[in-house]
Amino acid sequence: MPAARFVRRATKHLAVGADRLRPPGRGITVLIYHRVGGGTASEVDLPVEVFDEQLVHLCQRGPVLSLDDALVALDAPPGSGPDPVVVTFDDGTADFVDVALPVLERHRVPVTLYLASGFIDDARSFPGGAQPCSWASLRDALATGLVTVGSHTHRHRLLDRLPTADLIDELDRSIDRIGAELGDVPRHFAYPKALAPQPGGDAQVRARFASAAVAGSRPNGYGITDPYRLARTPIQVSDGMRFFRAKAAGGMAAEDWGRSLLNRRRYAGAAT
Ligand SMILES: [Zn+2]
């Protein structure tokens, strides 16, 4: 879709300019990846070399924390060094285990994987055709000591438009399945498509998890962040290294304007 590509490019340049006028504040930036080395033309399917170079940059610029450590750090005043970043992945595609994890291991970078457990159960492809990973491969992934598994609902339903009973079922099923297969109750949650829920759904998420991630390309400020509204910065192929560096430093907030414009059209009437 050339119009989408144009809006995307234009907003990236605009966002860098906006950062120059109003630099991002202090805080912890949570990055969101979807796929690495999946071999598709998707904007969220990064070539493995690019992902590797991005991790090199992250390790050189400052601490890369697990999500649990980041939540502790968010409760304290900012340190004197560079602000930490957190690396997260969504969905649970096979390329996370096969391609991304070996690179994360090489750099000893901790990662949180938000799993849509129903796709793993059914060995069903994700929208866009990505193959899911298996429970067995996830057990191996956990054995690296680098991976935290969170919930991303069971069927990747969009919670902002779901009746509360169905929403509860989505949350509890994912918790039960992850617990049964991986022996660990997921402590963290990410909303599918980063869409924040209605107040009723929000209360259900708060009752079950220690944190929840939504959209927002910005650092999460120390002492002021609601852990159930963690802002996550999406990484795209067209970021390359230039825009990636800006995002890792907590910048590119203005990119959200273009994205929310596109997403409003893209997700209208969708269920997953
Ligand atoms: Zn997702």
Write a concise keyword list for the protein shown above.
alpha/beta, binds zinc ion, 272 residues, eight-stranded parallel β-sheet
Cofactors, ions, other ligands: zinc ion
Task: Tell how many strands the DSSP assignment holds.
Answer: 10
| Strand residue content | 15-25%
Please give the share of residues in helix: 40-55%
Strand/helix succession: HEEEHEHEHEHHEHEHEEHH
C-alpha Rg (nearest Å): 17 Å
Q: N- to C-terminal separation?
A: 21 Å
Total number of helices: 10
Mean pLDDT: 93
Identify low-pLDDT runs: none
**Backbone shape:** globular
Explain this structure to me?
The chain has 272 residues and is an alpha/beta fold. It is built from 10 helices and 10 strands. Strands 1, 4, 5, 6, 7, 8, 9 and 10 form an 8-stranded parallel β-sheet that branches. Strand 4 (64-65), helix 3 and strand 5 (85-91) form a beta-alpha-beta unit. Helix 1 packs antiparallel against helix 10 and helix 7 (164-182) runs parallel beside helix 8 (199-208). The longest helix is centred in the first third of the chain and has 20 residues, at 2-21. The radius of gyration is 17 Å and the shape is globular. The two termini are 21 Å apart. The model has no long low-confidence stretch (mean pLDDT 93). Bound molecules: zinc ion (ZN). Residues 90-91, 152, 156, 192 line the site of zinc ion (ZN).
Topology of this structure?
Elements: H1 2-21, E1 29-33, E2 35-36, E3 45-46, H2 48-61, E4 64-65, H3 67-74, E5 85-91, H4 94-106, E6 111-115, H5 117-122, H6 135-143, E7 147-151, H7 164-182, E8 188-190, H8 199-208, E9 211-215, E10 230-234, H9 242-248, H10 255-266
Parallel strand pairs: 1-5, 1-10, 2-3, 4-5, 5-6, 6-7, 8-9, 9-10
Helix pairs in contact: 1-10, 2-4, 7-8
This protein binds zinc ion.
Zinc ion binds at residues 90-91, 152, 156, 192.
